[in-house]
Amino acid sequence: MYEFTTISGRVIEARRYMNRWPRLNEPDPAQERWEVWISERSTSEVKLTVASRIMPARCGHSVTFVVADDRPVGMVNLTIGASVNFTRADPMPVLQSRDVIWPVFMSLGGLMLAAFTSPLVLLVAVPLAVLYVPISVVARWLVRGRLQSQVDARLCQVRTEDVVRPFPKRS
Q1: Which residues lie below 8 Å from residue 22, measured CB to CB, with a gap of 6+?
Q2: Is 88 helix (H, G, I), strand (E, B) or coil?
Q3: Percent helix, strand, coil in the chain (nearest 5)?
Q4: Which terminus of the chain, N or C, has less C-beta within 10 A?
């Protein structure tokens, strides 16, 4: 379902920012985000934006980020021996603000369709509108749980394979 990649390097800069409240179409409710610049061994730099309150890495630490769909979901810090699963630390909510709007529009659409065609349309429209919220909540909960367990397994693999290698000390 998710294709994980890893980005290893030394943290050059880590800055913390406070976010605004999310809009209806934005599912990420994180109040804080970290912008982390990483210097890879090939002297290229990578910027990662982590939507989490937790960041156990500072400048100079050797880290490996686990990335899924261009979004950091986990991190192993070899310098201090810490790791964090960002999907567990700050999980996405299963009930989002847009979930309240869809059943209302579905009900209104069903009423309009029933007015123009047949009242039997309501036999389908009303149960769909009522079941939308529970089905979407359960589906998000299952997807989130699967992602969390996959990230845990990948972090364990990174720790055991010692993918993160400490950089030599600067002189």
Answers
A1: 28, 29, 97
A2: helix
A3: 40, 25, 35
A4: C
- Give a yes or no: residue 171 inside a domain: no
DSSP code of residue 55: -
Residue whose C-alpha is closest to residue 12's, from 52, 51, 44: 44
Residues of the chain with pLDDT under 50: 164
CA distance 48 to 11: 11
Domain containing 17 equals 4-92+154-161
The closest of 152, 162, 5 to 88, measured between CA atoms, is 152
Of 51, 76, 40, 53, the closest CA to residue 154 belongs to 76
- Residue 145 counted as domain residue: no
Please tell me the distance from the alpha carbon of residue 69 to that of residue 90, in angstroms, as a whole number.
Answer: 17
Return the exposure string of 37-59: e unless at least 16 CB atoms fall within 10 Å of the residue's CB, then b.
Answer: bbeeeeeeeeebebbbeebebee
pLDDT at position 150 is 93
Predicted pLDDT of residue 118: 83
SS3 4: strand
Report if residue 22 sits inside a domain: yes
